[in-house]
Design goal:
There is one protein chain. With 176 residues, the chain is mainly alpha-helical. The chain folds into two domains: 8-54; 80-169, no CATH class. The chain is built from nine helices and no strands. The chain has helices at residues 7-18, 25-32, 36-45, 48-53, 92-104, 107-115, 119-130, 133-149, 154-165. It is elongated and about 90 Å long.
Amino acid sequence: MARPRNPKRDESFQLWINSKGELKLKDIAERLELSDSQIRKWKNQDNWDEQLNGNVTKSKGNVTKQKQPNKVVKKEPVESELVVSDDNGLTDKQRLFVGYYVKYWNATKAYKKAYECDYNTARNNGSRLLAKASIKAEVVRVRDEITGDALLSKRVLLQKWIDIAFADMSDFVEFG
């Protein structure tokens, strides 16, 4: 349990305020029978100077753990060919996640954009959401719909990638 606040702390502050900051800290310490270092400590911790001047600011505490103000993020619309059907039992955010996932093929990025959260939350929850059977089925359906429009089979697409990967530069450029 925390120690109760020393009543002499408030009394020392009132003495200092009543003198409009003119009273020396060691004189306050003598009146209250405290050490002058204790009075200096209280003055620093309680921001007596700022309170006297009317410029009181809140303590920042641990700066690294402070929350940043929420930024207004504009959602970019998911491309029209990535429309996720409404009859699959998914929520709006889940449908948005599927649309972004099929666009970027990155669960963290898709979760972050759909749910407007920080990176760590998206990293943890993106893969969990992708593991759900209903979301997985919708991703497969949308992916097949996209590849069906391109008239490409998996085998043809893989062969194209192999051709590109092992292409010879001299087939495209003449030197000398």
